[in-house]
């Protein structure tokens, strides 16, 4: 299959391929969920994953494709696009992957896993080196269907798994716009002390948990100066316009009171990249469309190196 020259391959959710292409400012070739681009760019929001050393090769037999992949890496994940049966025959000859489904927090190290696809009967594309540890950036969690009041906790689980650090005993978390309490529950279950801020009440079973203090007030009205101790984690899943959330983030960052911020940016209608780019202008920040995000993105500050890799 003839493909224009490319330097990187990105994956994105089908509904956000257009946004990713606009971010790359390129004219990439799209095949399935793969975006073949000449641009290696580390600050794209809508890439769920990136294949950083992609190879495009022709092969004649299943055994030849298996040999190519075995020589390139130990573990391989199939991203099926074309000739699905042939793809699975190749996969069946490769080393079995370790489990990709985890409890939270993830305790077992995820080994390097390459990804491959067949573009036609005799064209293999693959990359042993990728950006995120789980294939396609998909953190597959064993869900907690009993305790959290909604499924928003999965976004925080994913964000913390990407950071590879999480709230712990002795740390203070402020959860802005906390109702009904999913994010507060996550942090409390990890042993942290939580101040949950919202005009709406928490679900009673969350509000009565130990180490959760509920304050009935506005997330935007809280003055960092009134917090007498350092805040280890400042979280926000509050529903508001991105511009207003940006001002909230800037207020807390300028105050120096919060060590880490994780905010959900709720996008409105057609995606406006300028609303995301203003967050990206904050030095040390990172904005990502997570696998468990819907029409929203997640703001990290400060972002560790693994979320802002130098790919160029």
Characterise the protein shown here.
The protein has 312 residues and is an alpha/beta fold. It contains eight helices and 17 strands. A seven-stranded mixed beta sheet has the order 13-12-11-14-15-17-16, sandwiched between helices. A four-stranded antiparallel beta sheet has the order 2-3-1-4, covered by helices on one side. A hairpin with a 7-residue loop joins strand 16 and strand 17. The longest helix is centred in the C-terminal third of the chain and has 14 residues. The protein is elongated, with a radius of gyration of 21 Å. The mean pLDDT is 95.
Write the layout of secondary structure elements.
Blueprint: E1 8-11, H1 17-24, E2 29-31, E3 34-37, E4 49-51, E5 55-58, H2 62-72, E6 76-78, H3 84-92, E7 101-102, E8 114-120, E9 123-127, E10 140-141, H4 153-163, E11 172-176, H5 182-189, E12 193-197, H6 204-207, E13 212-215, E14 233-236, H7 242-255, E15 261-266, H8 273-280, E16 286-288, E17 296-301
Parallel strand pairs: 6-8, 7-10, 11-12, 11-14, 12-13, 14-15
Antiparallel strand pairs: 1-3, 1-4, 2-3, 5-9, 8-9, 15-17, 16-17
Helix pairs in contact: 2-3
Q: Features of this protein?
A:
312 residues, 7-stranded mixed β-sheet, 8 helices, 17 strands
């Amino acid at each position: 299959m003839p493909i224009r020259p490319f330097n990187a391959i990105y994956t994105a959710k089908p509904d956000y391929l257009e946004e990713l292409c606009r971010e790359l400012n390129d004219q990439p070739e799209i095949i399935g969920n793969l975006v073949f681009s000449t641009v290696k760019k580390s600050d794209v929001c809508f890439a769920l994953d990136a294949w950083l050393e992609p190879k495009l090769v022709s092969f004649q037999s299943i055994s030849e494709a298996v040999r190519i992949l075995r020589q390139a890496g130990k573990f391989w994940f199939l991203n099926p696009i074309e000739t699905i049966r042939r793809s699975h025959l190749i996969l069946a000859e490769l080393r079995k992957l370790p489990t990709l489904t985890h409890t939270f927090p993830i305790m077992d190290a995820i080994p390097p896993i390459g990804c491959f696809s067949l573009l036609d009967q005799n064209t293999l594309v693959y990359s042993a080196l990728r950006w995120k540890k789980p294939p396609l950036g998909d953190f597959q969690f064993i869900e907690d269907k009993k305790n959290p009041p909604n499924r928003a906790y999965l976004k925080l689980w994913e964000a913390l798994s990407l950071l590879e650090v999480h709230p712990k005993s002795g740390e203070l978390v402020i959860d802005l716009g906390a109702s009904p309490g999913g994010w507060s529950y996550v942090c409390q279950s990890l042993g942290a002390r939580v101040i949950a801020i919202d005009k709406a009440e928490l679900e009673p079973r969350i509000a009565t948990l130990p180490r959760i203090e509920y304050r009935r007030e506005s997330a935007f009205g809280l003055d960092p100066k009134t917090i007498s101790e350092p805040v280890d984690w400042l979280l926000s899943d509050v529903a508001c316009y991105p511009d207003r959330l940006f001002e909230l983030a800037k207020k807390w960052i300028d105050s120096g009171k919060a060590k880490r911020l994780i905010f959900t940016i709720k996008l409105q209608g057609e995606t406006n990249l300028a609303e995301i780019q203003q967050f990206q202008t904050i030095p040390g920040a990172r904005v990502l469309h997570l696998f468990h995000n819907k029409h929203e993105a997640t703001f990290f500050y400060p972002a560790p190196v693994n979320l802002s890799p130098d790919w160029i």
